[in-house]
Amino acid sequence: MRCLEAVVLCMLKEVEGERTASSVFHLLKGKKSAQTIQDAHLFKLDKWFQTTPFLTMALFDQLIEGLQQSGCLEGDRQRSFVTAKGRDEIKDVLGQIGTFPHLSGWKLGGTAPLFFSRLQLAVQVVSHLAYQDRTYYPITRDEGVQQWVKQFVKKNGFEKGKLAASFHREIRFVLEKQPEHPDCLLLRFSGHSQTGKTIEQTADLLCMEPTEYWFRFLHSLHAVVQTVMNEGEELPLLKQLLSDITVSVPLTESARKTAAYLHKGMKIEEVAAARRLKRATIEDHIVELALNDPYFSIRPFIDEQKEAAVLKAGGSSGVRQLKPLKDRLPDHSYFEIRLVLAKESRGTT
Predict the structure, then answer these.
(1) Does the pLDDT of residue 315 top 70, yes or no?
(2) Which CATH architecture does the domain made up of 253-346 adopt?
(3) Share of the chain above pLDDT 70, in %
């Protein structure tokens, strides 16, 4: 079984038939919808958010069909359940590979890829400068990344040998602290007399199944980014690579706009009117804020007694299905229940 199949099975086991198989696909792809974002947090699957940019719905359909035919999944696309065989496969595959504890798709899905593009090109440029060799093709054609690295080198343009030595020291520092073999990242770098390998080439060189390599690479990259975030004072060059691309509270742009109106003291109806959106859409944004912003208070939207009632009915003990909770709490709106679940989920992820 490929690593990707094991990851999908692991996610479907957490969902346990409460969401469709397609919801797992949207989560892996990083769909910025209120439902997908809420699912990522409520089912504690946020680490996998936006971690498979290569996945298509056609490939995902084939994957699900294969898991059903092999006896790892039962049910249909609306309600899929992991069988005993499937649970054994998860235990076997992830037991050998690991569970990628440093993976943080929701928080770093938008940050890590750009950081890596800058890092790849910066390594290439600094390496060639150190050898006084300007005959090379940039590893990325992204003009934005090229311009950024050009300014980075100009800003740090002290004696080129020292720049290379300082950069080498910082990269070695973070690689020694990350959980995977350094080659997961190092083989992807280009430099003087060295051409960076593709994902497929690196997987082959490391004798790994391609999706296993992909998740190991991402796990390594996320660990490096987190090290730079936490120990930036020791890593001034790498810290610059993260400048202007880190987001303290990852939100959709629309939720940010709604937050700005709420901060002015406007009510839900007033925000909906000002933004020309449905009330339900503004409520989705508020749930998103409750999920992601540790300083966001749900008190303007639900009082303490109602919040306590949701928790007592099962919100803090793993009950995630809204309808059973709504049946137990007829005086609560779905929005109020979702809000409490969102706040509780935020406290555990």
Answers:
(1) no
(2) Orthogonal Bundle (1.10)
(3) 95
Domain ranges of the chain: 3-99, 112-242, 253-346
- C-alpha–C-alpha distance, residues 145 and 161, integer Å: 23
DSSP for 258-311, written as a single string: HHHHHHTT--HHHHHHHHT--HHHHHHHHHHHHHH-TT---TTTS-HHHHHHHI
**Exposed / middle / buried, residue 46 (Cβ in 10 Å: 0-12, 13-18, 19+):** buried
Q: What is the pTM of this model?
A: 0.84
Ramachandran bin of 5, using left for φ above 0, alpha for ψ from -120 to 50, beta for the remaining angles: alpha
In the prediction, which pLDDT does 108 show? 92
* 3-99 CATH: 1.10.10.10
Domains 3-99 and 253-346 share a fold: yes
pLDDT computed for residue 316 by the predictor = 47
Over residues 284-299, the mean pLDDT reads: 90
